[in-house]
TrEMBL record, chain A:
Keywords, sorted A to Z: ATP-binding, Cell membrane, Membrane, Nucleotide-binding, Transport
Organism classification: Bacteria, Bacillati, Actinomycetota, Actinomycetes, Propionibacteriales
ABC transporter domain mapped to chain residues: 5-255
GO molecular function: ATP binding
Identification of the protein by name: ABC transporter ATP-binding protein
Keyword Transmembrane helix attributed: no
Automatic annotation (TrEMBL), chain B:
Organism: Mumia zhuanghuii
InterPro entries hit by this protein: AAA+_ATPase, ABC_transp_ATP-bind, ABC_transporter-like_ATP-bd, ABC_transporter-like_CS, Oligopep_ABC_C, P-loop_NTPase
Family per record: Belongs to the ABC transporter superfamily.
Species lineage: Bacteria, Bacillati, Actinomycetota, Actinomycetes, Propionibacteriales
Alphabetical list of PANTHER family matching this protein: D,D-DIPEPTIDE TRANSPORT ATP-BINDING PROTEIN DDPF-RELATED, TRANSPORT ATP-BINDING PROTEIN
Stretches assigned to the ABC transporter domain: 5-245
GO-annotated biological processes: peptide transport; transmembrane transport
Key words of the record: ATP-binding, Nucleotide-binding, Transport
Domain of life: Bacteria
Stated name of the protein: ABC transporter ATP-binding protein
Molecular function terms, GO-annotated: ATP binding; ATP hydrolysis activity
Length: 333, 310
């Protein structure tokens, strides 16, 4: 069965071609049919660039220098704009963090959704009215018939994000790509939007790639997770095994530093330092300077070790405890 | 021991366009002791920030009073108001917006003292030490710092006037996950060293449960549940608190999708209403909830505004 998305050894860079700023270094990632993959990382890790560049949306000055990206078998790297237009919104639906910036403030939301349908199916705006109402109902917008006539500013943040998801689903894409879809929302609304994403994927056998910094979100909706650090995926596997038995020390650190809901004040397991930005990635294992189990070997690029159903990029996978750090060490962050 | 700050029956409303009135804060009382962290949680627009501004005497309440160390502060005495403002310092979500791009770290941290024409007991170097920044950082500009370092500078600046209360308004929400824990740990250390009282405003209950002593849950201007953090988190009494807790990602793969559904958005704060503000979203609401505003009731260590909580 064709995978919904196959990223193979993707390299992305920006800036002066003679002295480029490397943003993504050989990312390979597969989103299988009807599966949900979470791509996790901190700022500068390259998670958003990976997903945007894959869809030809990376913006001026950012270019793919190697690798291939196939959506439902269609090659996107080097594809002409017509192919990309057909894929985006057709094969792949996209949802971004801030629904206000992805909606046109001057157009009724029903018309915007109808336009998304028109772009791929032709016809006139009015002929898609039934489909628009159906989509709004599907993402849980109450009174969809009336709401279709609303402008974005008349809706709450949660409703706007539902509208953005409805628009992404307009042409029944095989793959949903969502970049931080709940970050800008209140917690209660986050949970509601997650429910919408869950039903749009699970109940309709749709695949999704969800880019986020929030490990909780990944635990909620994803089947597999890929953890990015300094432009590379450092660990990939089924969510359950990665969360219960993380192989890479960075994954372990991320999980330890995330507070969980429980009684009692407590010290959190803080990592030393901060994520390095593109252009200042250490040679060898990029995580080594922050790693509690780093050794001399980590000066060399680590090998890929496959485990049960996943893999990690580490010289010392699955070993060691994160140690407490002093305030000064943490301040170097 | 008298609390550092006590808020008694505070209320604040605003007239808005069209003749409507927006109730931002409605009869809120709370106290915070030295060394204690009081966390306010609630959705956007519930009045958390207005309440914090009234505590710091930046916004005058329509009703109620603010006491510091047991003394009621008169809104009319400017010197008293000014002292309260010095005793209360803020740390906001986005440190990039809170720091002037034109001031070096050293200038930023010493600015409060310069404005008040005071010499603090602690030098800029000491303050930077306190927040875990190397002294050499003093000559840098904010743009040369990471988000976590900037937030440390903001905290150092907040400490310059030796405040008694820090209002922490989503202090780690804009930081990377691996840096959030560092800043939260730092705040806990500073509190222990200086006996600071914290008013923490946050939406992330997981963060709140790991750092707060007490939690107040706000809904449309009122505190609907308040008590020791452990009680509120483990046995939430108010349906709204239960809903907030159900919204926190379980973080255990496999437990997904089996939690109570969260419904609706908060009602508008401009709506006139009788009865319980939460009734429109509440699964347990009965006729009494629509007719009668629930009074504050004590259930053990916890206070709840709900007719049905037990």
């Amino acid at each position: 069965m064709t995978a919904a998305l196959e990223i193979d050894d993707l390299w992305v860079e920006a800036g002066d071609p003679d002295d480029p700023l490397v943003l993504v270094r050989g990312v390979s990632l597969t989103v299988a049919a009807a599966s949900v993959v979470g791509l996790v990382g901190e700022s500068g890790s390259g998670k958003t660039v990976t997903c945007m560049a894959s869809l030809g949306l990376a913006g001026r000055g950012v270019r793919i220098t190697g690798g291939s990206v196939r959506a439902q078998g269609i090659e996107l790297v080097g594809a002409d704009e017509r192919t990309l237009m057909r894929v985006r919104g057709g094969v792949v639906g996209t949802v971004f963090q801030d629904p206000l910036s992805s909606l046109n403030p001057l157009q009724r939301i029903g018309d915007q959704i109808a336009e998304a349908v028109m772009l791929h199916h032709g016809g006139r705006r009015r002929s898609h009215h039934a489909r628009v109402v159906e989509l709004l109902a599907k993402v849980g917008v109450p009174a969809p018939e009336q709401r279709a006539r609303a402008y974005p500013h008349e809706l709450s943040g949660g409703l706007r994000q539902r509208v953005a998801i409805a628009m992404a689903l307009a042409n029944d894409p095989a793959l949903l790509v969502a970049d931080e879809p709940t970050t800008a929302l209140d917690v209660t609304v986050q949970a509601q939007v997650l429910d919408v994403i869950r039903s749009a994927t699970r109940d309709e056998a749709r695949s999704a790639l969800i880019v986020t910094h929030d490990l909780g979100l990944v635990a909620e909706v994803a089947d597999r997770v890929a953890v990015m650090y300094a432009g590379q995926i450092v660990e990939e596997g089924p969510v359950a095994s990665v969360f219960q038995d993380p192989q890479h020390p960075y994954t372990r650190g991320l999980l330890a530093s995330r507070p969980v809901l429980a009684a009692g004040r407590r010290r959190l397991g803080a990592m030393v330092g901060r994520p390095p930005l593109p252009g200042s990635w250490p040679a060898g294992c990029a995580f080594a300077p922050r790693c509690p189990v780093a050794t001399g070997a980590c000066g060399e690029a680590p090998p890929i070790r496959t485990s049960d159903q996943g893999w990690s990029r580490c010289w010392h996978p699955g070993s060691g405890e994160t140690t407490a750090t002093s305030r000064a060490e943490e301040g170097a962050a | 021991m008298s609390p550092v700050i006590a808020l008694e029956g505070l209320a604040k409303g605003y007239d808005i366009a069209g003749g409507a009135r927006l109730t931002a804060v409605d009869d809120v009382s709370l106290t915070i002791a030295a060394g204690e962290t009081y966390a306010l949680v609630g959705e956007s627009g519930c009045g958390k920030s207005t309440l914090a501004r009234m505590a710091a005497m930046l916004t005058a309440p329509d009703a109620g009073q603010v006491s510091w160390s047991g003394q009621t502060v008169s809104q009319q005495r400017r010197s008293a108001v000014r002292a309260v403002r010095d005793h209360t310092q803020f740390v906001f979500q986005d440190p990039a917006a809170a720091l002037s791009p034109r001031l070096t770290v050293e200038e930023a941290v010493s600015e409060p003292l310069r404005i008040r024409r005071r010499t603090g007991s602690r030098s800029v170097a000491d303050l930077l030490d306190d927040v875990g920044l190397d002294r050499s950082m003093g000559r840098r500009y904010p743009r040369e710092l990471s988000g976590g370092q900037r937030q440390r500078v903001v905290i150092a600046r907040a400490l310059a006037l030796e405040p008694k209360l820090l209002v922490l308004d989503e202090p780690v929400a804009s930081l990377d996950v691996s840096v959030q824990a560092q800043v939260l740990n730092l705040l806990a250390d500073l509190q222990a060293e200086h006996g600071l009282a914290y008013l923490l405003i946050a939406h992330d209950l997981a963060v709140v449960s790991s750092v707060a002593d007490r939690i107040g849950v706000m809904y449309l201007g009122q505190i609907v549940e308040e008590g020791p953090a452990g009680d509120v988190v483990t046995t939430p009494r108010h349906p709204y608190t239960q809903m907030l807790i159900a919204s926190v990602p379980a973080f255990v793969p496999g437990e997904r999708g089996e939690r109570p559904r969260v419904v609706g958005d908060p009602a508008s704060p401009t709506e006139r209403r009788t009865g319980c503000a939460f009734a429109t979203r509440c699964a347990f609401a009965t006729q009494v909830c629509l007719d009668v505003a629930p009074p504050r009731r004590e259930l053990g260590d916890v206070a709840v505004r709900c007719h049905h909580a037990s």
